[in-house]
Amino acid sequence: MLEKMTKNIDRLVIPFPSGMQEVNCYLIEGDQGYTVMDTGTYSNEAKAGWEKVLRSGMVIEKVVLTHTHQDHIGLAKWFQQEKGVPVYTSTISYNAMKKRRETNVRHNIDHLIKRHGGLGVPEKMADDSFIYDFEPDGLFEENDKILLGNDVYDTIWTPGHARDHVCFYSEEKQVMIIGDHLLKHISPVIGLWLGEESDVLQDYYDSLERIKTYHVRVALPGHGEQIDHLAERVDEVRERHDQRLQEVLDGIHNQWKTAHDICQDMYGMLHIVLWLSPFMATLTRLIYLEGLGRVERKTVDGEVLFRAC
């Protein structure tokens, strides 16, 4: 089940029945046991994967999270309260957790989608607020140093895919654990997952440039294969985003459209569950272009329309 990634880091691929359907969890060996990086969703399949590891006698010292999307934090509460393993998050992630459990995020996303021409949140989208209803055992800040296994890692705040996303970098080993900030074969979805409008694509671009400044031998992502040439992959992802931005502009040349209309133009008619990520990607591109002064908006009967300037 475990795949050796570096001398003291193993990868465990945890399957689950939704979304990406699997996540890379990393086990970093130390004298006190293993540090687990991310957990998988709250699901029977993910629990079964971890139960097999725990039955092997492996000692888990702590769980550390890159960000609070469901497939990364889903079993953190389970680890803490049923297995007695302490959980550590960034302060930014802790604030996201509180927002998830104290506000009606589902309602906010539903309102956001309808304002931008969509039908709202799919009925099958489950309420997952319960997975955030626990207190972390410890918090770390941006630019802190944290012990993962026996190695010291820098914490790098990399908002974009998630507002609270953090990467971890070992200068000594030239290893970076990058979560969902960058993936080898696909681009992470940049979305407004709390239902609040902001220019998250600009945040993502800034974060991509930030990690290019590090000397990285091996980058370990939250899904898929490891990345051996991080700076090159950053440039590839940025180029692909720029192509999509031009497609958005071409689609609203001299005409007003909602984000939903533009999404359908670019991606076609998708199943309502599969439609949410492309819609979010389209909307965040429009907000980014608006920030550059290349797109304008108006509101008609409660719906937001965009047009290229």
Automatic annotation (TrEMBL):
Entry keyword annotation includes Plastid: no
PANTHER family: ENDORIBONUCLEASE LACTB2 (PTHR23131), METALLO-BETA-LACTAMASE SUPERFAMILY POTEIN (PTHR23131:SF4)
Signal peptide: none
Protein's name in the database: MBL fold metallo-hydrolase
Source species of the chain: Halobacillus naozhouensis
Family matches, as InterPro entries: Metallo-B-lactamas, RibonucZ/Hydroxyglut_hydro, Sec-metab_biosynth-thioest
Keywords of this entry: Membrane, Transmembrane, Transmembrane helix
Domain Metallo-beta-lactamase: 22-223
Residues that span the membrane, as ranges: 266-288
Coiled-coil boundaries: none
Keyword Lipid biosynthesis: no
